[in-house]
Write a structure and sequence with these properties.
Helix content: over 70%
Distance between the termini: 75 Å
Largest sheet: none
Number of helices: 23
Structural class: mainly alpha
Order of helices and strands: HHHHHHHHHHHHHHHHHHHHHHH
């Protein structure tokens, strides 16, 4: 007997019967799912959408491709590229990592991953990826330059110089690259390198107060204090309201024991910023050096109120307390100075004197021993005084 249920006529009749019982809307999801399967995006579709600049649609198409084939490393890599162009860097980094997990030898993926992490300000993760990119292709200038910028972001300045120096040499017109190299040299205390870079920047923009200031810092690091003063004077002339320009000039005069000139500059800084802690501290120090402890004390106390982490304040306060035979407060102040930088000898020396005065010979000898170990380690340069760290990177602008 012929099986009539298999004929097209009977299949259509059965569909009509279902429709009459359940309603026509029941058939729509079934038909739609058939159409979706038939029209599922292909890599060619995704590429076409990408070429048309339809990035959200291209990303959706690449996601569909990866869902259909979760082992397609190239699809994940392409998805990451589209997401990066949309500036969705966290999602892009995730896509790149999936691509690399499937195929660690995909060309360019470590560089792309490093750039995506860099754009998020994830400098550690960026450096890890970029080191692999450089190791696999030592001639990739983009990877090497980006690694140098990333090391700057990590404040690993000596490492940054290794990569930024050749990049800057190959691109003499790139002001931003030379600025990063100059800053790296300055904070690595490679003063000749810093000075050369800042001089080049000044040639391009002689009226840059920032370049004059930084050139002055480099000259000061080379113990060329008179030349450093000249640069700070030029900065003050160009931009008299520039933050820290008067403090820096005052500090250089203070360092040269030109205390009247130094005080004038510190007061100019305070006219711009009445709570400038360092300016307050150094005026207090000048008063102490001029044997006016009663006048010094209010300045030093104002400095502490503005910033509790200034060593010079605690050293001067300790000296005043010792003169007043207030040994308890003197010891507390010196302990704070040591905590702020245990590698500098001056606080240890003062503590030794204090302990000797109190009859604590063993403690005194211990401190004097540290002084002998740490002798000549003091650093009186401007670097680190005007700013506690170099200018931060803006990841959205630091690399293209």
């Amino acid at each position: 007997m012929k099986n009539r249920s298999q004929s097209p006529f009977h299949r259509v009749a059965r569909m009509k019967t279902w429709s009459s019982i359940f309603g026509a809307s029941l058939l729509l999801p079934i038909v739609f799912s058939i159409l979706v399967v038939a029209q599922a995006p292909t890599p060619a579709d995704a590429i076409a959408l990408q070429q048309q600049g339809k990035l959200p649609e291209a990303a959706q198409a690449w996601r569909a491709v990866t869902e259909r084939d979760p082992n397609d490393a190239g699809a994940f890599a392409s998805l990451g590229v589209v997401l990066s162009k949309e500036q969705k860097y966290a999602e892009a980094a995730s896509a790149y990592r999936k691509a690399l997990a499937l195929n660690p030898k995909l060309p360019g993926m470590e560089l792309n991953l490093g750039l995506a992490e860099f754009k998020q300000g994830h400098f550690q993760a960026a450096a890890a990826a970029l080191r692999i990119a450089v190791a696999s292709d030592a001639g990739n200038d983009q990877a090497r330059t980006l690694l140098g910028i990333t090391y700057y972001g990590l404040q690993r300045f000596s490492d940054a110089i290794k990569y930024l120096e050749p990049a800057a040499k190959n691109d003499p017109s790139n002001v931003e690259l030379h600025r990063l190299l100059a800053q790296s040299c300055l904070w690595a205390k490679n003063y000749p390198c810093a000075l050369e870079e800042f001089r080049q920047l000044l040639q391009q923009n002689p009226d840059s107060a920032a370049a004059h200031i930084l050139t002055g810092e480099a000259l000061d690091g080379l113990h060329k204090t008179p030349e450093a003063i000249t640069e700070f004077e030029a900065a003050a002339k160009v931009a008299p309201s520039e933050p820290n320009v008067h403090f820096g000039l005052g500090y250089l005069h203070w360092k040269s024991k030109q205390y009247d000139e130094a005080r004038q500059e510190f007061e100019r800084e305070l006219a711009l910023d009445p709570n400038h802690a360092l300016a307050l501290a150094y005026i207090g120090d000048i008063e102490w050096k001029n044997n006016r402890p009663e006048t010094a004390l209010p300045w030093l106390e104002r400095a502490v109120a503005a910033n509790k982490d200034l060593r010079i304040v605690y050293l001067d306060l300790a000296a005043i307390y010792m003169q007043q035979k207030d040994y308890k407060n003197a010891e507390t102040a010196l302990a704070q100075a040591v905590d702020l930088d245990p590698a500098l000898p001056d606080a240890h020396y003062q503590l030794g004197r204090l302990y000797y005065s109190l009859g604590r010979a063993a403690d005194a000898e211990k401190e004097f021993h540290k002084v002998r170990e740490l002798h000549d380690k003091a650093d009186e340069s401007l670097v680190g005084k005007i700013a506690s760290s170099p200018p931060a990177l803006n990841p959205t602008e630091g690399a293209k």
